[in-house]
Amino acid sequence: MPIDPYILLLLGTVGLAALLPARGTGADVASGASTAAIAFLFFLYGARLSTREAVEGLKHWRLHVTVLACTFVVFPLLGLAARGLEPVLLTHNLYTGLLFLTLVPSTIQSSIAFTSMARGNVPAAICAGSFSSLVGIVVTPLLAAALLGNSGGGFSADSLVKIVLQLLVPFLAGQVLRRWIGGFITRHKKVLGYVDRGSILLVVYTAFSEGMVQGIWHQVSAVRLAGLLAVEAVLLAVMLTLTWYGGRALGFHREDRIAIQFAGSKKSLASGLPMASVLFGAHASLAVLPLMLFHQMQLMVCAVIAKRRAHDPEAATTPVPPVAASRIAVGTAPRSD
After folding, report:
1. Hey, what's the torsion of the CAs at 208, 132, 239, 151, to 10 degrees?
2. 275-305: buried (b, 16+ CB within 10 Å) or exposed (e) per residue?
3. What does each C-alpha distance from 234 to 63, 91, 198 come to in angstroms?
4. pTM of this structure
5. Quick count: other Cβ atoms within 10 Å of Cβ 167?
6. What is the pLDDT of residues 97-109, one digit of tens each?
């Protein structure tokens, strides 16, 4: 299974921060640019989200409530259950990053792509991912405040204000201006996609530079990383199982269960990295490491599952999902969100 090229870029950015971390004035410039990039990212998220599609999606409210429950209730409960692995298997900082991973929203683009590949309910996946991202702007910081407290690098009321100013306000501004700029964004979505990814790379470089200057990377060993990967593999397996069989127990049809499985079992790198940068400051590098690893793992595993679902006996009698949805062609590689 090939590694997502964007993950290679992220790893290269981490390597650059290790070799040439930003210091002094350079660190101040990088930090300011990172802050601006985060605000711009969430402005674009707001401008892209169609209010009409979101309202239409509310008709399938049971599915969306199920996905939100998986993302913001079941995942965090599993994260809290993993506390028993500290400090035997995970260091305190790695556990904090793992718990933060369980609090971030679901993905949008990759959930849509995998749902389409597996012949599931693509419109539901579009709305579920969008709702999760929207809710996460508010819920993720609140959950972080409740569950992480000061362990993540000083979460406080000031951090909450930063979240509102850097994430929520730009998002709402994008929603307000969507009426005038939505067409432009749609026409230039490929170029703006590069801006998205470049912004995230800048956030990663800034966070890992701060980590290098603070010397926190001396706290991580190969054994601890192996332990983290094992824990994340179990976490992903549990969520994939719960979303699939839980959807069946709740009476959802196969197409809906596919959307629930792919939207309810994944976590967004694009949303999580900027949030971690705001919430954790100099500690963000270790906080986002579990998310980066989990992201690649979920892409690899879900790609295999989606291909198998597409060849299920049930899939042979299932029509290809309508393509309000079919902007994602079957077989298209998912974007790193």
Report:
1. 40
2. bbbbbbbebbbbbbbbbbbbbbebbebbbeb
3. 24, 18, 31
4. 0.81
5. 26
6. 999 999 999 988 8
